[in-house]
Amino acid sequence: MDALTPLVCLAVGIAIPVVALFLLVRRGWRQLAVARSYGEVSRRLGLDVDTRGVALQGHLGEQRIWVGQVMIGHGTERRMACWGVLDLERPLGLGFLLRRRGLRERLRRSRGPKLPLDERIDRGVELHGDDAARVRQLLGDPVRALLRTTLERWPDLVITDASVRVMLRRPPARAGELHDLVDAMRALAAELVRARRAIPPPPPLGAQAAEWERLAQELGVTFEPAFPGVAGTLDGRPLRITTIRTEEGYRTELRLGFLPHRRTGLQVREQKGPDGYWSVGQDIQFGDASFDHAFVVKGYDPEQVRELLAPAVRERLVALTAAGRIDVDDLRLHAGGLPADPRRMAPIVRDAIVAADLLGW
Q1: Is 252 exposed, middle or buried (0-12, 13-18, 19+ CB in 10 A)?
Q2: What's the number of CA atoms in the CB half-sphere (13 Å) around residue 87?
Q3: pLDDT tens digit sequence for 228-255
Q4: Distance (Å, rounded) from C-alpha 86 to C-alpha 59?
Q5: Which residues lie below 8 Å from residue 121, measured CB to CB, with a gap of 6+?
Q6: 3-state SS assignment for residue 360
Q7: What gap in Å lies between CA 104 and CA 25, rounded to an integer?
Q8: Distance between CA atoms of 38 and 282, rounded to whole angstroms?
Q9: CA 117 to chain centre
């Protein structure tokens, strides 16, 4: 045994660095594979490729998408996680939450009271909503079929009023796997909104239907009775105003799309809001106390962004914060947390149009 001891020690001494090197190489290879996967699928979807190779992100029509790592938690509990997140084209407005039982990730979305599970829905999920009848109408056969197939492959699924979210154990290293995930989220999001359009609005909102219809007529756009809200085109720009459900009750959000222009990477977010996975890059300062205090700004070229956000634009954006939570990017101006009163929307729409005109977008 004593004669074997040096050999064993030598073998162990060789094995430790070899294993460490193998693990290091494998980790590096996987990071490269993940970056290639993000790039390939981004190109297939017509999205800008993240040159850092850490995420798939952008807009698919009205829907923001993100697949990549995010920092979650607070203080000593902060940790990295990998999420796939896709905004719904229209918020459901039902206080809706569906997630796997036992999944306790912190959510910033409002949810309604817990509902008894429908026998037709997987017993492994937890369901919340304001109105059991409307939630069950939403979860018709097409939605349930998509839920079953999605949960079989990605069990850590969370659906809220605003988004479809999949919590991944690690970033997808194969383009086919990532594309399957994006397709599954898009199919589920589309079917949820299709089903929502067939459901009447909650009673407190249904009482405002006539006012929403009058607003649609005033703006020259289409009345959407299910949510309720309006949608259409103003001065060549797509406009949508929809009622949403928040922790404080019902609110309204406005999305005004911009005219085609050269991309700048612009991101304008309110300082008080979370700077989460949608926002990356260096902050750009303007030396304008009221604007710098109100917003975090990012973009490809700081000088170009400063020229773009001229004093008149900055003044208009600060003024809009009196109505709600404002954020702007290359594709649209979004105003959230607006009052759930259609009679107050027309002046806000006009202010948003003026801001877009001043941008030249």
Answers
A1: buried
A2: 15
A3: 999 999 989 999 999 988 888 899 999 9
A4: 9
A5: 127, 139, 144, 147
A6: coil
A7: 34
A8: 22
A9: 27
- Which pair of structure tokens corresponds to residue 89? 């084209």
pLDDT at 49: 78
Domains of the chain listed by start with CATH number: 55-197 (no CATH), 203-359 (3.30.1460)
User: Strand order in 97-100's β-sheet?
Assistant: 55-60, 63-72, 79-87, 163-168, 157-160, 97-100, 125-128
Measured distance CA(36)–CA(107) in Å, rounded: 30
- Strand ranges across the sheet with 325-329: 222-224, 229-234, 237-246, 249-257, 332-338, 325-329, 267-270, 295-298
pTM above 0.85, yes or no: no
| Sole residue written with tokens 């490809």 | 300
What local confidence, expressed as pLDDT, does residue 320 receive?
A: 93
CA 153 to chain CA centroid, Å, is 21
Identify residue 124 by its one-letter amino acid code. G
pLDDT digits (tens, 9 = 90+) for 196-212: 999 999 888 888 999 99
Cα–Cα distance, 208 to 201 (Å, whole number): 10
337: its two tokens: 């947390």
CB 241 within 8 Å of CB 62: no
- 125/155 Cα distance (integer angstroms): 9
> Where do we find the tokens 């996987």?
30
| Other C-beta atoms lying within 10 Å of the C-beta of residue 115 | 19
